[in-house]
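Structure (tokenized):
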């Protein structure tokens, strides 16, 4: 019979979480079939070399395995980057901290309602906006590309910053530590070929920053007035004010 201690159970949970995270990202990115093919190749290599002891074929496959890591890094570089970002995110491990440290949430973030109200007003007037909310991964490199604001999150201030005649309306606003840190910031643009052509630079920038960090990105379309929310390299479009409030409350971490 097998006997499992607490340490073994924790190890199993961690491995299961890692595998689930990896599988989910591969499935979302459309590379799950490639990943499955790689696993199948490894399985065949083990059978050929360890069980059947087929030396000629085994030696040929050994050559592929010797450079396999480099090939995998090239094939899955975006997925590996996103995996490491999610792995380092506070939220991915929050349930472990809750279990061991009995950590409690500090309640709803104070920036949520001002963002929701501002986005709803800008949606009505079709004022384009891009608001990025820092999570576990620092956005200091992106904050420095814009102008420092360092102000409390206020709906009227957000609307004034993104007003069409404002010098700060181009670029992204970054919220960190429950304050508006910077505005007119430059973000990385996603090069995902599956992004609909109808999505402009704001949506691509929102996806870009959420592909390389765990940040949240809220977009208000200048063409349609639709509100969207991007996180973990995925974007949800045409959401209501209530949906935005709920999603921000769910995805935000303390």
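Design, position by position:
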């Amino acid at each position: 019979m097998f006997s499992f201690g607490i340490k073994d159970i924790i190890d199993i949970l961690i491995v299961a979480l890692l595998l689930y995270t990896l599988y989910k990202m591969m499935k979302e990115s459309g590379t799950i079939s490639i990943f499955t093919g790689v696993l199948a190749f490894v399985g065949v290599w083990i059978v050929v070399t360890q069980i059947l002891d087929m030396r000629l074929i085994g030696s040929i496959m050994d050559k592929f395995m010797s450079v396999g890591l480099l090939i995998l890094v090239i094939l899955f570089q975006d997925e590996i980057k996103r995996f490491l970002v999610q792995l380092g995110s506070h939220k991915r491990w929050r349930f472990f901290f809750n279990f061991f440290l009995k950590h409690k949430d500090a309640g709803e973030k104070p920036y949520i309602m001002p963002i929701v109200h501002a986005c709803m007003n800008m949606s009505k007037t079709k004022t384009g906006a891009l608001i990025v909310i820092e999570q576990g991964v620092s956005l200091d490199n992106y904050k420095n590309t814009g102008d420092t604001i360092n102000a409390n999150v206020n709906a009227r201030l957000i609307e004034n910053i993104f007003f069409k005649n404002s010098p700060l309306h181009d670029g992204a606003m970054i919220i960190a530590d429950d304050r508006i840190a910077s505005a007119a910031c430059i973000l990385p643009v996603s090069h995902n070929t599956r992004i609909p052509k109808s999505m402009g630079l704001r949506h691509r920038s929102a996806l870009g920053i959420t592909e390389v960090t765990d940040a949240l990105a809220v977009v208000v379309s200048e063409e349609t007035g639709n509100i969207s929310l991007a996180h973990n390299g995925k974007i949800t479009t045409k959401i209501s004010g209530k949906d935005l409030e709920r999603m921000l409350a769910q995805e935000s971490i303390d």
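Reviewer-requested clarification: The two ends are 42 Å apart (CA to CA). The CA atoms of residues 58 and 129 lie 57 Å apart.
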